[in-house]
Amino acid sequence: MPSDTPETPSLRFAPASAPSVPLAFVAAESLEQWLATLPAAQSRFARAQGFTAGIGATVVFADDEGAMTGVAVGRGTAQARARGRFALAAARAALPAGVYHLDSDLAGSELEAEVLGWLFAGYRFDRYHANAAPKAALCAPEGVDAARIEAIVAGECLTRDLINTPANDMGPQELEEAAVHLANHFGASHLVVKGDDLLAQNFPMIHAVGRAAVPARAPRLIELNWGDTGPLLTLVGKGVCFDTGGLNIKPGASMGLMKKDMGGAATVLGLAQMIMALKMDIRLRVLIPAVENAIAGDAFRPGDILQSRKGLTVEVNNTDAEGRLVLADALALADAGESDLVVSFATLTGAARVAVGPDLAPFFASTSALVAPLMQAGETVADPLWNLPFWAPYETMIEPGIADLDNAPAGGMAGAITAALFLKRFVTDTPKYVHFDIYGWCPAAKPARPKGGVGQGARALLDALPELLAR
């Protein structure tokens, strides 16, 4: 359920007035200096426990009566910190139940990233199975905007919940319900066009991709609008709630994670929640083409040529490259709305995963001025990004000759770039366009990120928005 702050206690800071014990956050290179500041007995105890300040390492101090007087958590070496994120979060589950306050010289973005990670570590997806949350709580350190961090955590948890929910409970209808619930909570307006009305209102490719699904899972375009002042930001999220691959059916091993193919939609809804909860001075528009790429007698076929909202024709050379088709119609609508910035999020290509792996979110920007703010923001808020180019010499690869565009060029080279170039053909009147090709999934548990759905790029974009919208 969307809210201004997370309702789960493990996802919030403890009240500042709560009795708490100190939590020392110790870097490996500062271990000896820190040990020298302790009473001799505590220093000997820490050494005896083998505390080396590695990431996730903990040591608990107690008085003569056995009452806890403090804990220490390792930050690891500089090399270890460079190889990962959220060192503080790595220790949260191992700490005894209680309330802690941070005893550390961290400040600024480093401090904010660590306490953000601490809250992320309280996330559990327990809709179908009970998963105990950690009992250790943290007071918000001085200098940290606790309300902002809690709002960001709430948005991220919405994204995770939506991605983690299996397709039997997260089809186009349920995705619509989640979006409408979010809109109602924050006073946004909403509009949904579904089924054959998509054809009547000129969204032919969204209809074509989703028409094979059963009526209860009919294709639709979901739109939210919020805010009365400020620049107009339009977020477009791929909402393929399950992707069989269509008639170019995926093998079973590739189909197993396809509940996450609506990760782009989940990301923009989580980001929209952050923006609205923070009451940012912008006008926000969210567009989600929500479909199920199913197999039935009226499924679209390889070799079909589809009309698009933009007027461009598209030859379908692979029905498993459906995400760019539904995004194209939504982007054409976004492009006609005088947006100051259009941003799309999609779990779009395997090529992006081959290029940068699951941790990095590659993005494409229509102007070079958009790149530096996003890269800097990604580093600042520990939401890493990598810039890939809209490489114009590859435009010919998406021009089949029989139609204006090819949805799946042969050869397999530069797949992330050619997909991004395809999308860019539908954003011709908006100078500032950014596309994120995200994975939306953490394949193995890491600090602050359990295995499963995860947000990528949203926090970086949130941080960069003031500069992006000002340029």
From TrEMBL:
Stretches of the chain forming a coiled coil according to its record: none
Superkingdom, natural source: Bacteria
Single Gene Ontology BP annotation: proteolysis
Limits of the Cytosol aminopeptidase domain: 318-325
Family assignment from sequence similarity: Belongs to the peptidase M17 family.
Family annotation (InterPro entries): Leucine_aapep/pepB, Macro_dom-like, Peptidase_M17_C, Peptidase_M17_N_1
Gene3D superfamilies found in the cross-reference section: Leucine Aminopeptidase, subunit E, domain 1 (3.40.220.10), Zn peptidases (3.40.630.10)
CDD domains: Peptidase_M17 (cd00433)
GO cellular component: cytoplasm
Protein's name in the database: Peptidase B
PANTHER family linked: LEUCINE AMINOPEPTIDASE-RELATED, PEPTIDASE B
Keywords: Aminopeptidase, Hydrolase, Manganese, Protease
Pfam family, one: Peptidase_M17_N_1
Lineage, broadest ranks: Bacteria, Pseudomonadati, Pseudomonadota, Alphaproteobacteria, Rhodobacterales
Enzyme Commission number: 3.4.11.23
Any one GO MF annotation of this record: metalloaminopeptidase activity
